[in-house]
Every structure is written in C-alpha cells, then in structure tokens.
Design brief:
Helix content: 55-70%
Order of helices and strands: HHHHEEH
Subcellular location: Membrane
Radius of gyration: 22 Å
InterPro entries: L6_membrane
Strand content: under 5%
Shape: elongated
Structural class: mainly alpha
Membrane topology: Multi-pass membrane protein
Largest sheet: 2 strands, antiparallel
Protein name: Transmembrane 4 L six family member 18
Distance between the termini: 23 Å
Pfam families: L6_membrane
C-alpha cells in the first residue's frame, strides 16, 4: 500500500504544474500577443471559447492532482479500499479532462485562427484540414493579429503535449489503483491463511 500511495503522490505532484501550464496557455490564447482588443471584439477562433486548456486540462485536472497528493493521509484499514476507489475515480475524471483538452486543442489547430485577411475577418485555413501547418509560407495571409498563426500553433501544440502527459499520468494511476484494488484482498486472504 505504501508504494502505491507514494506512486500516486508522485503522479499528483507531476499533475499540478501541468494543470497550471494548461491554464496559462489557454489564457494566452485569449490575448494574442498580449492584446485585449481581439477578445473584446470577439475575433478569436471559435474552439478557443471551449476552454479546453482552462477547464479540461487545467481546473478539472486539479481534482485528481489533489486527490493523488492527499492519498493515504488516514492510515486506518477501512479507508484503504475507499482511497483506492477514490483515486480510480479521480483518475477517470483526469482522463476525461485531459481528453477534452486534447480534442479541443486538436480541433482548434485544424481549424486555424480567425484573422483579418484581404477578404476581411475570416478563417483562411478552415477548409484545409490542417495542411496549413506544413505550409508556413501561407501564414502571411493573416494580416491581423500579427503572427497570430505562430501564436496559436505554438500554444495549441503545447496544450496537446500537456494534455497527452496528463492523460498518461492519469492512466498510470488508474492502472495502479485497479491493480491495488484487485490484489489487496488477495494479499489479505494469504496473510489470514498464513496466520491460521
């Protein structure tokens, strides 16, 4: 039990900075190049408003992080299976949050930014299925905000990477919690039969 609790705490400590980075990256997406004008004029890409990094990879991820870190604070025997069930449930919530962040960031990346072009405010890359990512020479179509494509691509790739790491961490804890929940009763039966 001690090993699994220590493992869970380590995973929780790893989740905290990832969640905070997701929140920061999502907030930066709302203010291209630090400018508040575009959020006030509703000129941001539609998928950014789904707050994949802020909600899914950020705030929702704080729950499993806190559960994993505080796991094992009560050492009474009755709580051990309850703790593992709680950690499994928290891991599932983390999987949902990180999955949401990953999917929303992916959609936003494929859609591309909303920007001012020679045709006005539009999504110049929306119909390309993400091919614009491999054609940086086309990014100059966006006249305003300046460097919006680089800004969005960079931050959305960061969110994708962070969400993938969060997903892996929660998956590890889900596996650990399930193994511990299954093996723990077997260990108790063996200990009981040996003591008999």
């Amino acid at each position: 039990m001690c090993c699994s609790v220590g493992f869970a705490r380590t995973l929780g400590l790893a989740l905290l900075p990832l969640a905070l980075c997701c929140i920061l990256a999502n907030l930066l997406l709302l203010f291209p190049m630090g400018d508040t004008t575009y959020i006030q004029q509703d000129r941001l890409a539609s998928y950014i408003w789904y707050f994949g990094g802020l909600g899914g990879g950020g705030i929702l991820m704080l729950l499993p992080a806190v559960v994993f870190i505080t796991l094992g604070k009560c050492s009474c025997c009755w709580n051990e299976s309850l703790m593992m069930c709680g950690s499994v449930l928290a891991a599932v919530i983390g999987l949902v949050g990180s999955g949401y962040c990953f999917v929303m960031s992916g959609f936003a990346l494929v859609q591309g930014p909303q920007c001012f072009t020679s045709y006005g405010w539009t999504y110049p890359f929306a119909d390309q299925g993400g091919r614009y990512l491999l054609q940086p020479e086309t990014w100059s179509r966006c006249l305003q905000p300046i460097h919006i494509v680089e800004w969005n691509v960079g931050l959305l790739c960061i969110l994708l990477g962070l969400a993938a790491l969060e997903f892996i961490i929660c998956l590890l804890q889900l596996g650990s919690g399930l193994v511990n929940a299954v093996c723990r009763p077997c260990c108790y039966k063996q200990e009981y039969s040996l003591n008999m």
